[in-house]
Design brief:
alpha/beta; 28% helix; 170 residues
Length: 170
């Protein structure tokens, strides 16, 4: 199966309110525009700042505004046909085991929000990467390592049922 991916990182954690306040919420139209058009193996990304309480997987009230816009973008005609992977990441503070578990719970919290917003469950998968994929230019304990990556899997015409006569191998 041929897939084209778009990466969309959602940053989270105990970020300062001044940092979050400086980052405007991207609306549905902005998100779709930044993810489209996609040709070939293009990858486009955008960082969204989603807050969780320190060491928690509970979404903050401020998280709802950005996740609402993400939900609307994922329901748009441009993105609705495609699958979405939600991948949680943490910094390197704490044990690897606890960070792995926290990243999984945070990714699932985002998936749960999207499910409540009527994004089809068949489109969504959640994964946790813990501290295994730190951003290379940051210190291991930098809060910007705490993020959720949203990957929109762009399917080809063949993947979406416009067959060329061959059955894809799953």
């Amino acid at each position: 199966m041929i897939l084209r991916s778009v990466f969309l990182a959602i940053m989270f954690g105990a970020l300062s309110s001044s940092l979050v306040g400086a980052q405007a919420v991207l609306d549905r139209q902005d998100l779709v525009r930044q993810l489209e058009p996609i040709t070939g193996n293009d990858e486009r990304s955008v960082d969204l700042y989603i807050l969780f309480a320190l060491g928690s997987h509970e979404l903050s009230e401020k998280a709802g505004a950005q996740l609402g816009e993400l939900s609307a973008a994922l329901m748009s005609d441009e993105l609705a046909p495609h699958d979405v992977r939600i991948v949680g990441h943490t910094d390197a503070v704490g044990s690897a085991k606890s960070n792995q578990e926290l990243s999984e719970r945070r990714a699932q919290s985002v998936v749960n929000y999207l499910l409540e917003a009527d994004i089809a469950s068949a489109r969504l998968t959640a994964f946790g990467r813990g501290e295994s994929n730190l951003l290379s230019n940051l210190a291991p304990d930098d809060g910007r390592n705490r993020r959720v990556e949203v990957i929109v899997i762009r399917k080809t015409d063949k993947d979406m049922g416009k067959s060329d006569g061959h059955t894809p191998i799953n």
